[in-house]
Amino acid sequence: DTAVSQTPKYLVTQMGNDKSIKCEQNLGHDTMYWYKQDSKKFLKIMFSYNNKELIINETVPNRFSPKSPDKAHLNLHINSLELGDSAVYFCASSHIYREGLTKNIQYFGAGTRLSVL
Amino acid sequence: GEDVEQSLFLSVREGDSSVINCTYTDSSSTYLYWYKQEPGAGLQLLTYIFSNMDMKQDQRLTVLLNKKDKHLSLRIADTQTGDSAIYFCAERRQTGANNLFFGTGTRLTVIP
Question: Do the Cβ atoms of A90 and B100 come within 8 Å?
Fold first, then answer.
């Protein structure tokens, strides 16, 4: 069973379109994340969601909006796609962060490769 | 600086040891992680170390931590062709959330 699954695996679209990437986890985790990996493989946190509440947003344009219908899902919606949005987007999940809680390991999905033409 | 730094490339011969180095940024980071990314795949956690440890060994993997210099390394013994991948170190900073900050990744190539 796949622990963190993302769909689609590949997404090719035109500039200006709106698209969504879905993420689901079956690990019973409370917190989910979206990361962006650019063409040079740099990996940066975009969002994390905890109990339906956005808890971080690292200077991501407001064209990107995470949507969480329930604690097992965190979808990423992108409006007005730009060329610079082309990247691989990774979803991850972990138990809720608490100070002193050990490990808080994040488990990653396989990624969605977005190409904006 | 803000960035977690790693060398971009490393090539080793099959059977040799590989050492991948990382310099992290926050001396109060509690956990440091090593993730592996194979081509076209997601990130797989390899191992982690708590900041009050100097060393952790897990089968062929040895992690060394030098807190004073904020230096982390991953040694892979008896490197195999299946170890070819990109290796990312990550630190969990003390920001009140489970924020992971990743290094630039080191592409390990194992030569048969």
Answer: no
List, for residues B66-96, the tens digit of each pLDDT value: 999 999 999 999 999 999 999 999 998 776 5
Q: What is the pLDDT of residue B97?
A: 63
Handedness of CA A22, A79, A15, B43 (dihedral sign): negative
Q: CA-nearest residue of chain B to A91?
A: B42
DSSP string across chain B: --SBEE-SEEEEETTS-EEEEEE-S-TT--EEEEEEE-TT--EEEEEEEETT-SEEEETTEEEEEETTTTEEEEEESS--GGG-EEEEEEEE-SSSS--EEEB--EEEEEE-
Bridge partners, B111 (sequence order): B13
Contact between B65 and B72 under an 8 Å Cβ cutoff? The reply is yes
